Amino acid sequence: MQVDILAIGAHPDDIELSCSGTLLRHIDAGYTVGLVDLTRGEMGTRGTPELRLEEAENARQLMGAKFRHNLKMADGAFKNDRANQLKLIREIRSAQPRIVLANALEDRHIDHGRAAKLIADACFLSGLQKIETKDEDRNIQDRWRPKAVYFYIQDRQLIPDIVVDITEYMERKIELIAAFKSQFHDPDSDELETPLTGADFFDFIKGKNKVFGRPASYDYAEGYNVIRTMGTTDLMALD
Predict the structure, then answer these.
(1) Mean pLDDT for each 10-residue chunk of the chain (239 residues)?
(2) What is the CB-side half-sphere exposure of residue 72 using CA atoms within 13 A?
(3) b/e map 183-194, b = 16+ CB within 10 Å
(4) Is the four-CA dihedral 231, 233, 236, 239 of positive or negative sign?
(5) Do the beta carbons of residue 89 and residue 125 sit within 8 Å?
(6) Pairwise CA distance, residues 52 & 199, whole Å
(7) With a threshold of 0.85, does the pTM exceed it?
């Protein structure tokens, strides 16, 4: 299914935590969105891979994304190799997105920066004619290269190159994150605590988005980095 924006995350919930406000805003504007998780999050301290898949689908439905695929790469151990590049190339060529949203270029979790490089490489390679891939019906796919890749900022406080106003969507973003019930605060849980399970974690998310929004005079924003020069034909269209 073709979409305007393809958001990719190393783990189920990466997308919700870091760029779901942006996705909600664009869905409301009439754009279509697809989601891809590289792993099942099977190395996570809490929950199970099966539960994470259920939570991810619940979040997809709440968001209104057209699809969510899981590539079942190895959590904590996937490599930026040809086999994984081809898995992503098939997704990119199938969805033909104008924009790809990807993991942070550098972060606390080792999978995030590794995923960013894998996604960027796959987006480039997807545009090469001599790399052949086939869809589920064994038809040869057309080459496709997204117009832009934006790397969402995750745990570490990187300086964004661009921010997206999510003021109207902050509370809905929290609802999407909360769909991953196994991963966040639960006073009745007897599982081990993690950096995500504190009672104040959602306050941290809101605070982070408030910090991103302040320089652009937004109440809340999500931040992105780019690895290319951005351009515009209309300076007046920029906030």
Answers:
(1) 97 97 98 98 91 97 98 97 98 98 97 98 98 94 97 96 98 96 83 84 96 97 95 88
(2) 2
(3) bbeeeeeeeeee
(4) negative
(5) yes
(6) 20
(7) yes
- 8 Å CB contact between 190 and 45: no
46/98 Cα distance (integer angstroms):
35
Which tokens is 46 given? 């809490």
Query: What torsion do the CA atoms of 179, 5, 146, 102 make, to the nearest 10 degrees?
Result: -20
Structure tokens at 208: 């982070």
- Please say whether the dihedral angle defined by the alpha carbons of residues 128, 129, 132 and 137, taken in this order, is positive or negative: positive
Angle, CA of 126, 21 and 12, to the nearest 5°: 60
Helical pair 82-95 and 110-125, crossing angle rounded to 10 deg: 60
Tokens of 167: 């003021």
Number of residues that this document lists for the chain: 239
Instruction: Output the CA torsion sign for 14, 198, 49, 44.
Output: positive
